[in-house]
Amino acid sequence: MIKILCVGKIKEEYLKLLIDDYVKRISKYMNVSIVELKDNPIHTKEIANLIENINSKDYNIALDLRGEEVTSEKFASLIEKTLVINSNITFIIGPSDGLTKEILDKCNKVISFSHLTFPHGLFRGILLEQIYRSFKIINNETYHK
């Protein structure tokens, strides 16, 4: 199973449609779950809520500006190799103030998609598109260029 652990709900309809579309596409290959944790104006409470929901039995990947930048091919390889040894991958998207060292230390890997800052809803769509692209690469299917 692929799980995305994130803070806040998506309010924009166009982003909901994007996210739903990629969840549907990915579901042909793997179950996908998006766990939306409640926004909290107090950063420490958001972090505590994230920590509470991180399962140490999953392969946890933090998405953070300080992480390793990867190509789509390397991202696909990470997913493929991880699913051989662990059937659950959790991607962790932090709150607007970012992830703390405590959360990063609980993760098996920290990756960055870019040094740019993205709105959370849009980034969920980008993450899901890259997960979908990964399954297309893994299965040698047309899509990735």
Summed up, the domain count is 1
Major β-sheet profile = 5 strands, parallel
Please work out how many helical segments DSSP would assign: 5
End-to-end separation in angstroms reads 26 Å
Helix content: 40-55%
Q: Which fold name corresponds to the CATH topology?
A: Alpha/beta knot
Q: Look at the structure and give the mean pLDDT.
A: 94
In the CATH classification, which architecture applies? 3-Layer(aba) Sandwich
Unreliably modeled segments: none
Summarize this structure briefly.
With 145 residues, the chain is α/β, with parallel strands linked by helices. It is built from five helices and five strands; from the N terminus they run βαβαβαβαβα. The protein is globular.
Set down the secondary structure blueprint.
Layout: E1 2-7, H1 13-26, E2 32-37, H2 43-53, E3 59-69, H3 72-85, E4 89-93, H4 101-105, E5 109-112, H5 120-138
Parallel strand pairs: 1-2, 1-4, 3-4, 3-5
